[in-house]
Design a protein that fits this description.
This protein is of the alpha/beta class. It has one domain: Rossmann fold. The protein has 8 helices and 7 strands, in the order E-H-E-H-E-H-E-H-E-H-H-E-H-H-E. Strands 3-2-1-4-5-6-7 form a 7-stranded parallel beta sheet, sandwiched between helices. The longest helix has 27 residues, at 101-127. The model has no long low-confidence stretch (mean pLDDT 96). Bound molecules: nicotinamide-adenine-dinucleotide (NAD). Nicotinamide-adenine-dinucleotide is lined by residues 11-12, 14-18, 36-38, 56-59, 84-89, 110, 114, 137, 139, 182, 184-185, 187, 189. Nicotinamide-adenine-dinucleotide (NAD) is lined by residues 11-12, 14-18, 36-38, 56-59, 84-89, 110, 114, 137, 139, 182, 184-185, 187, 189. Its EC number is 1.1.1.100. Keywords: Oxidoreductase.
């Protein structure tokens, strides 16, 4: 695929999956804009990716607009947007009736409202491209109704619905929108959203019987961003080693 002069912005790419996606897409020839709440981490990934860093809080409409203005002034044309930023690794597991209102609102605010807000702010830059593609990172936890983080699963189900509407409303602009639903993958960030026993049980239930890695998601994201998926829009691509089949 010819990615020469093609630019993609990956949100939440200061660490974890987003970091691997940013570095991997840069290796595949994309010019990468590393966007994250943590500006220092974004800078460090951008330096490795040979790209640019942008500090943004996707849960703030104002911050999204500021980031978009900055890029607009630089005449950036966005050919790809990967909405990967979310509250995830910092969450703790609990049944839905124990989640307090503030935590519920915050997760929905970042994961769902944030995805809508940053995409809205960046639309003028995406419209400058001849064939832009949006990839929204949801989660296969939606398909299995994974217990103990209902706010997160609900936010990701919302992201899937939002993706379908985006694909319709952006069709006339020639912009495609698809969602990716990754299964559980281990990153460099320790987290409490899955126990070692649950990891073992999931691996045993998968068709591909090994733990998933962030690198397992790269090919699917690159496919959805590029022209090989030019006839694919308004879909979800599930990458969970076959934990769920559909
Ligand atoms: N790791 C997994 O097993 C897994 C599985 C399915 C889906 N996902 C999804 O993949 C994505 C990345 O997961 P991860 O494991 O790397 O998560 P992570 O928690 O390690 O990283 C999230 C990143 O998003 C950034 N971020 C958080 N709030 C932000 C905000 N308001 N504005 C801008 N940036 C913000 C953080 O700074 C961080 O860099 C998330 O959308 C997650 O829901 C992860």
């Amino acid at each position: 695929m010819n990615t020469e002069n093609k630019t993609v912005l990956v949100t939440g790419s200061g660490q974890g999956i987003g970091r691997v996606l940013a570095l991997g897409l840069a290796e595949r020839g994309w010019r990468v804009i590393v966007a994250d709440l943590d500006g220092q981490r974004a800078e460090s990934v951008a330096a490795k990716a040979g790209g640019e860093a942008v500090t943004v809080d996707i849960s703030s409409a104002e911050s999204c607009r500021e980031a978009a203005h900055l890029l607009q002034h630089e005449d950036v044309v966005l050919d790809g947007l990967v909405n990967n930023a979310a509250l995830f690794s910092t969450l703790t597991m609990k049944p839905f009736w124990e989640i307090d209102e503030q935590e519920w609102d915050r997760v929905l605010r970042v994961n769902l409202t944030g995805t809508w807000q940053i995409t809205t702010a960046l639309l003028p830059l995406l419209r400058r491209s001849a064939a832009a593609s949006i990839v929204n990172i949801a989660a296969s936890a939606v398909w299995i109704g994974r217990s103990n983080y209902a706010h997160y699963v609900a936010s990701k189900a919302g992201v899937i619905g939002l993706t379908y509407v985006m694909s319709r409303e952006l069709a006339d602009d020639g912009i495609r929108a698809n969602a990716l639903t990754p299964g559980s993958v281990r990153t460099e960030i320790p987290r409490h959203t899955i126990t070692p026993e649950q990891v073992r049980a999931q691996v045993n239930a998968q068709n591909v019987q090994r733990p998933g890695t962030p690198e397992d998601l790269l090919g699917a994201v690159a496919f959805l961003l590029g022209p090989d998926s030019g006839f694919v829009s308004g879909q979800t691509l599930n990458v969970d080693g076959g934990l769920t089949v559909r």
